[in-house]
Automatic annotation (TrEMBL):
<feature type="domain" description="Thioesterase">
    <location>
        <begin position="72"/>
        <end position="139"/>
    </location>
</feature>
<keyword id="KW-0053">Apoptosis</keyword>
<protein>
    <recommendedName>
        <fullName>Acyl-coenzyme A thioesterase THEM4</fullName>
        <ecNumber>3.1.2.2</ecNumber>
    </recommendedName>
</protein>
<comment type="similarity">
    <text>Belongs to the THEM4/THEM5 thioesterase family.</text>
</comment>
<keyword id="KW-0472">Membrane</keyword>
<keyword id="KW-0276">Fatty acid metabolism</keyword>
<keyword id="KW-1003">Cell membrane</keyword>
<keyword id="KW-0809">Transit peptide</keyword>
<keyword id="KW-0966">Cell projection</keyword>
<feature type="region of interest" description="Disordered">
    <location>
        <begin position="1"/>
        <end position="23"/>
    </location>
</feature>
<keyword id="KW-0378">Hydrolase</keyword>
<keyword id="KW-0443">Lipid metabolism</keyword>
<dbReference type="Pfam" id="PF03061">
    <property type="entry name" value="4HBT"/>
</dbReference>
<dbReference type="InterPro" id="IPR052365">
    <property type="entry name" value="THEM4/THEM5_acyl-CoA_thioest"/>
</dbReference>
<dbReference type="InterPro" id="IPR029069">
    <property type="entry name" value="HotDog_dom_sf"/>
</dbReference>
<keyword id="KW-0963">Cytoplasm</keyword>
<dbReference type="InterPro" id="IPR006683">
    <property type="entry name" value="Thioestr_dom"/>
</dbReference>
């Protein structure tokens, strides 16, 4: 079953920045302590990202045993987090911080522990501060691996925000952001 998701008629596709590094280039973590992509977050998911063609990016997630929900399978919240991170990272080309406003996931197939998931995410278009994104996940290694089968899909609305969004939490930050609002690559 798929959720309802309607793209507005007045969508604009953003241009890639002139210094976009091109398909295959790694995308650095936006914040080292991020649960999704941080390289200094031992409790986190340590997702790895690369730029793809155009506005698409690819994220990889090792489905570790600690991500278990039902016996043997990934927890739905972990998969939702992976999509949130991937679709947020797809917004990196805007060179502005974004936060998730709305995310909806279609859990199409069960995903066993030990899988390697590939998530492809992209910006579908923007309207003012609203950034419409979508993504799909496939199991590319491990049990049930089949790169032709989409095991989950996601649609997400992100909003560009200013530094004041993060300033409100400056007294609670765990770690030292490399930029004032922790989005160190934007
Ligand atoms: C590039 C860096 C890479 C980053 C990767 C990070 C990945 C992880 C991302 C996250 O998980 S962020 C954490 C989860 N999200 C949050 O904590 C956000 C909490 N919510 C908020 O702070 C505010 O609700 C939000 C900033 C999202 C929106 O508040 P605003 O006051 O800025 O929005 P405003 O009310 O001015 O609405 C602007 C437009 O967005 C629309 N909008 C806002 N929230 C919406 C919503 N939830 N659903 C649908 N539409 C929404 C709103 O209708 C309006 O549309 P129009 O321009 O057409 O008038």
């Amino acid at each position: 079953m798929s959720g309802t998701w309607t793209l507005p008629d007045d969508l604009t596709l953003p241009k890639l920045p002139d210094d976009h590094p091109g398909a295959g280039a790694p995308i650095p973590s936006h914040w080292s302590k991020c649960f999704g992509c941080g390289d200094d977050q031992p409790a986190g998911m340590a997702m790895q990202f690369t730029f793809g063609e155009g506005l698409e990016i690819t994220g990889m997630l090792d489905v570790a045993n600690r991500y278990q929900g039902g016996p043997g399978f990934i927890h739905g919240g972990i998969l939702s987090t992976a999509f949130d991170e991937a679709q947020g990272m797809a917004c990196m080309v805007l060179r502005r911080p974004v936060v998730t406003g709305h995310l909806q996931i279609d859990f199409a197939k069960p995903i066993p522990l030990g899988s390697v998931l590939e998530l492809r995410a992209r910006i579908d278009g923007t309207v003012r501060r609203k950034v419409y994104t979508s993504a799909e996940a496939r199991i590319v290694e491990g049990p049930f691996a089949d790169p032709d089968v989409v095991v989950a899909t996601s649609r997400g609305l992100f909003l560009t925000v200013g530094a004041q969004h993060f300033d409100r939490a400056k007294d609670f930050v765990d770690g030292i952001p490399r930029s004032p609002h922790g989005t160190s690559s934007v």
